[in-house]
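Below is how a single chain appears once it has passed through the pipeline. First comes the sequence as given, then the structure the pipeline wrote out for it. We keep one example in the README because the format questions we get most often are answered faster by looking than by reading.
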Amino acid sequence: MNKTELIAKVAEAGLSKVDAKKAIDAAIEAVKGALKAGEKVQLPGVLTLSVETRAARKGINPATKQAITIPAKKVVKAKVGSELAAAV
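Resulting structure:
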């Protein structure tokens, strides 16, 4: 399912497609803002998103076979809730 299909599904709940798109865009922006602030986003039974810092590590450049240092970075970690896992 892509974003357009999601908008159509949400619109089936009685919203216009324009209102459904606004609602989905607002939800996405709220999730982005919370994750940027370092907060955890929890939808009980469905999904939990959090930000973790991945430590710097050694790697190998596949083209030159030389050792390189991969810098530390922040990544989003997703954990599937029990209801969603059971539905699949």
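The CA atoms of residues 40 and 50 lie 5 Å apart.

See the next section for the split statistics.
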